[in-house]
Specification:
The complex is a heterodimer.
Chain A: E1 15-18, E2 37-47, H1 50-53, E3 63-71, H2 72-75, E4 86-92, E5 96-98
Chain B: H1 12-26, H2 32-44, H3 47-59, H4 61-69, H5 71-77, E1 86-91, E2 96-101, H6 110-113, H7 118-121, H8 123-131, H9 133-139, E3 149-154, E4 159-164, H10 176-180, H11 185-189
Parallel strand pairs in B: 1-4, 2-3
Helix pairs in contact in B: 3-4, 4-5, 8-9
């Protein structure tokens, strides 16, 4: 679909860590999830990088986008609720590293 | 502030909208008719569209599988065009309850649910639903048993989410139309469950 696409790095079930970075500009990685470890739930496809689109560039090569599943108790140490409760967030591959 | 009905100056953003719209029309980029048609199209999208999809999935198990596999394609089967948007449908089950939020802005499956309610866009809902979903759901009148897993979906990028609620008991043999009437907007966001049929 896109003229250039970054190669997919992670598989479903693999553990990944969201980078703890604070770049300026338009970013689609919420602050609260940076630095946390989760597992890949699914690959959503590849999409132009929104950080580049916000700068009026074409966002290519397209970045793989994943849905990453986090345990609520890992994200919020004081979380009140079942130990199985989870949070799923869409994260672009360039924000992930192997955990 | 208190004297309603009196002349109110436009707010900053209202003024910006009017200015931009008038400039676009003046420069020939858009016509007034196109703007009006788009506003009308937006108003025509109502949660009944999503409810139709839910009722069809409840009555057609093979359709439900396709809907969970690829939401966009499955909606097209029902004649609902979802342009440039990837729809992910998540299924509620006795052991899993799903709920949707967008912490970054207010991403919402407008083609199926129409214009989002104000509370969905509020800072309070957006920040609290990821952190204390059980408490927020209780405020909506929904007590989720401790043993049920809650899955919160933060709609942060290109996907849009819709919850497929559980079919209420006592609706065996119902028509799709009748079933659809039990499916509220809130049930498809995940802050409610499908209505139970009236008894007695």
């Amino acid at each position: 679909m896109w003229s250039s696409v970054v190669e997919v790095k992670y598989k479903v079930g693999e553990k990944v860590k969201v980078m703890k970075a604070y770049p300026l500009g338009h970013v689609r990685t919420p602050f609260y999830i940076r630095g946390h470890v989760g597992t890949i739930e699914r690959l959503c496809g590849s999409f132009p990088n929104p950080e580049e689109l916000a700068q009026m560039r074409d966002g290519l090569p397209a970045q793989p986008l994943y849905r990453v599943r986090f345990r609520q108790k890992d994200v919020w140490p004081d979380y009140r609720g079942g130990a199985a409760d989870v949070l799923e967030v869409e994260i672009f591959q360039h924000w992930l590293e192997k955990a | 502030m208190s004297d309603r009905g009196k002349y109110q100056p436009l707010s900053y953003f209202q003024l910006m909208e009017v200015t931009l719209r008038e400039l676009l029309v003046e420069k020939g980029v858009l016509t007034e008719e196109q703007v009006a048609a788009e506003v009308q199209a937006m108003r025509d999208r109502t949660p009944e569209r999503g409810a139709r999809v839910v009722a069809h999935a409840w009555t057609h198990p093979e359709y439900k599988e396709r809907l969970l596999e690829n939401g966009t394609k499955a909606c097209e089967e029902l004649g609902l065009e979802i342009p440039a948007l990837k729809l992910v449908v998540v299924e509620n089950m006795p052991e899993v309850h799903n709920v949707i939020v967008c912490t970054l802005c207010s991403c919402y499956p407008r083609v199926l649910l129409g214009i989002p309610p104000d509370w969905y866009k509020s800072r309070s809902y957006r920040s609290r639903m990821v952190r204390e979903p059980r408490k927020v759901l209780a405020e909506f009148g929904l007590e989720i048993p401790e043993k049920t897993t809650i899955r919160v979906h933060d709609s942060t990028a290109d996907m849009r989410y819709m919850v497929l609620p559980m079919r209420p008991p006592g609706t065996e043999g119902w028509s799709e139309e009748r079933l659809a009437a039990l499916v509220s907007r809130n049930a498809m966001i995940g802050v409610a469950v499908a209505q139970r049929p009236a008894t007695g």
